[in-house]
Design brief:
The protein has 390 residues and is α/β, with parallel strands linked by helices. It contains 13 helices and 13 strands. It has 2 domains: 210 residues, 3-Layer(aba) Sandwich (Rossmann fold), CATH 3.40.50; 141 residues, NADH Oxidase. The structure holds flavin mononucleotide.
């Protein structure tokens, strides 16, 4: 895509800011430690600033980190373990104090100890306490060597609870020098464009937002998955679907990491009961470990007087769709999967509370990986016709 088509190019400079932390010097690299004259995150920040026509603010530590990698890790590890807020330079503090009218914050950081450096946390505290993050759209980007965003997004949500988090960009250190294409692709994502428009107070056609969802196979889903609280919040939006009698004829069972062994056993046993040999049963077991998180979507068969079973099923299906939609709008991704294990009564018994319940599908959830395919425009004819009496 030509750079001029990047949506953020329209972003008025005084409403957007690229704040980033980056450290030059010796750094870990999967191919062997490297001496960096320019930090990886700075390179990505420069590309973001150029694409978005936004000014940059470097979060400079008051006390610089050593040039050596090991010595830096020792300090960073202690800062992380004690969740410290090391001081930012006085120039950085003045620049933060001068921020006004912020609507869009591109926030860049390297992943340190599985999250962002404590100077980034210090900046977020400062900005939040100054009321700068209320309703602001934050577009996070990071450079890393294998952790992806790690715990950074959940920590970001905690430290900026009143901001709107848009989908982020993950770049591997060695690709930071030639990241402009990845940056442009990120800024062109429908969900990112919509978030930016929202941040700027422009209305986004609802249908356009809804059209930005697509199913993502487990191989395109990376950590983090939403936490339990986030799942609850998203499920609550799914309760707004048409629901005759307000029965909420569905529920979601979150399968935490430790329970996936048990799910694997159930899959393997179900496959054996269906006649699979050892190899196939092991393959079935392996399905329990695909993707960052698995949820069971359970349809509850109970109805009430005047509510047909079909109506309850329609409500459950609508809720599933709305759940997937809200998941995507919150920056996560997922896919609804079925599979022959759902026909296994023992497996069903392990999840269902009574005769009327049925696990109808599995939902695999995570964060769209860097190589996740983009939604394609819908070109099929919509199944809408006019009935003229016969
Ligand atoms: C103190 C320290 C801790 C790190 N921890 C991680 C980590 O947990 N996961 C990871 O993928 N990379 C880790 N890295 C690698 C950096 O995230 C990566 O090299 C990044 O691109 C550095 O960006 P910068 O040059 O902008 O500082 C760490 C590097 C340092 C210096």
């Amino acid at each position: 895509m030509p750079h001029s088509e990047v949506p953020c190019a329209e972003t008025p400079g005084d409403q957007a800011l690229v704040a980033f932390f980056s450290r030059a010097g010796e750094n870990y690299c999967a191919q062997g430690n490297q001496m960096l004259a320019v930090g990886h995150t700075r390179r990505v920040a420069e590309a973001v600033a150029a694409a978005a026509h936004a000014p940059m603010l470097e979060l400079v530590p008051e006390t610089p980190y050593p040039e050596g990698y090991d010595a830096t890790v020792a300090i960073a590890k202690r800062e992380w373990e004690e969740n410290l807020r090391p001081a930012l330079s006085s120039e950085t503090l003045s620049a933060v104090r001068a921020i006004s009218k912020l609507r869009i914050l591109f926030l860049g950081f390297p992943i340190w100890c599985g999250t962002f450096p404590r100077h980034t946390a210090a900046f977020l505290d400062l900005a939040r306490e100054a009321g700068l993050l209320e309703g602001v759209v934050i577009l996070p980007f990071c450079t890393q060597e294998g952790s992806g965003f790690g715990n950074a997004l959940s920590e970001l949500a905690r430290l900026a609870p009143h901001a709107i988090l848009a989908p982020g960009l993950v770049v591997q250190g060695i690709h930071s020098e030639h990241c402009r294409q990845a940056v442009d692709a990120w800024l062109s994502l429908e969900a990112v464009r919509s978030a930016v428009s929202l941040g700027l107070g422009r209305s986004v056609p609802g249908a356009q937002l809804l059209a930005s969802r697509r199913s993502l196979k487990p191989k395109y889903l990376a950590a983090p998955a939403p936490g339990l609280e986030k799942i609850r919040e998203i499920a609550q939006t799914a309760m707004r679907v048409p629901d005759h009698g307000c029965l909420v004829p569905w529920r979601i069972a979150v399968i935490p990491g430790q329970a996936r062994e048990r799910l694997g056993e159930l899959y393997a046993a179900a496959a054996r009961r269906a006649g699979a040999d050892d190899e196939k049963a092991e393959r079935a077991r392996g399905r329990a470990f695909k993707g960052p998180m698995i949820l069971a979507f359970i349809v509850c068969g109970q109805t009430a007087r005047g509510v047909a079973r079909d109506e309850a099923l329609l409500t459950a299906g609508a809720a599933l769709g709305q759940f997937m939609q809200a998941l995507s709008l919150e920056g996560f991704g997922g896919i609804v999967l079925s599979g022959s294990a759902l026909e296994d009564e023992e497996l069903q018994k392990a999840f269902c509370r009574d005769e009327g319940e049925r696990v109808a599908a599995w939902i695999t959830v995570g964060t769209p990986a860097q190589n996740a395919p983009q939604p394609q425009p819908e070109t099929r004819e919509p199944p809408v016709s006019v009935w003229e009496g016969s």
